[in-house]
Amino acid sequence: MRRIAALSALLLLGGAPAAQAHVASNSFLSVRVEGARLEGALELAVRDAEIAVGVDSNHDGTITWGEVRAAQAALQQYLRGHLQLAGTEGRCALRFGALQINERVDGNYLWQPFTADCPSAPARLTIDYRLLDAEDPSHRGLLTLSAPGAAQTAVLGGARSVRSFDLRHPSLRAAFIEYLQAGMWHIWSGIDHLLFLLSLLLPAVLLRRGRHWHALPQAAPAWLNVFKVVTAFTLAHSITLSLATLDIIRLPGRLTESVIAASIIVAAVNNVFPLVTEARWRIAFAFGLLHGFGFAAVLSEMGLPQGARLIALVGFNLGVEVGQLAVVLAVMPLAYLLRATRFYQRALMPLGSAAIAALALVWLIQRAAG
Description:
Blueprint: H1 2-14, H2 16-19, E1 26-34, E2 37-45, H3 46-53, H4 65-70, H5 72-82, E3 83-87, E4 90-96, E5 100-104, E6 107-117, E7 124-129, E8 140-146, E9 151-156, E10 162-166, H6 172-189, H7 191-201, E11 206-209, E12 212-215, H8 219-245, H9 253-272, H10 280-302, H11 309-338, H12 342-369
Parallel strand pairs: 1-8
Antiparallel strand pairs: 1-2, 2-6, 3-4, 3-7, 4-6, 5-6, 7-10, 8-9, 11-12
């Protein structure tokens, strides 16, 4: 227990800068088509702008509004080289407005409005998105594209840097695939959701007897534990994701993100000082309801295409489940193989869980304090 406490203290004292690593590198790109003219905005996290053009000019670790204003020309030049819009007959000329700041739950974002004039009213729009392509290959841009026909969304970047969109007859199948991929990407890039799930899965291959964990002798009970946890989590977050997306119930973003961090602490600490052993699915269900509001916040930021709200909701939720299932299938076979080892029972379970709880506590403090 002394080693666990020491590790937790070390993480709390030195982990605050590293704690931001849980935040996925995403930008938000909105484009509205009005004849031959495009209007839109790009929201790029200040931390990502620092990686791209070096906003922190005095290198003191704090980015001020003055430094942001001073870096505006460099940032706009960077965007011209990494974001291109083209209509049916050629490239659309970008013009940028005044840079502003927008606050989100995961930090401050630079809000860069722009307009673009195309040679003619486009029937198709091609977007070449290469922001942070070299600096951070995991970065993605979440696109909301509005045209008189319908609204569309897409995840830009990575292997799909260049995308073309039919503005007059958007495909429902394409919309479903986009939201499916967005759901998968969100669960894989959202390490807070993964750590909550991992905290519940770690003891799934063990049985609590007295004051110690012991290996389950057979695979069937372990997979039954996994099935209960995953099913409860899936059912819970599907309920609140649907309710929030359809504007039936909404929670403040800061409250949701703070409680998600708290849920990780509860699940992880329960592995070290177990109060709930055989009924961990109850923890998964209770906090899964709140994780659903977190998923809904991402989905609302992407926007729901007109005439395809249900398709988008189902696709995104299914994507979350596919991503979640992939993680379970990757983790559980290894956990089952190691379950009887001293390393798993005496090191990975207590120390790993304590590290997860300590990191989540840092997130909770950061999110609650804004």
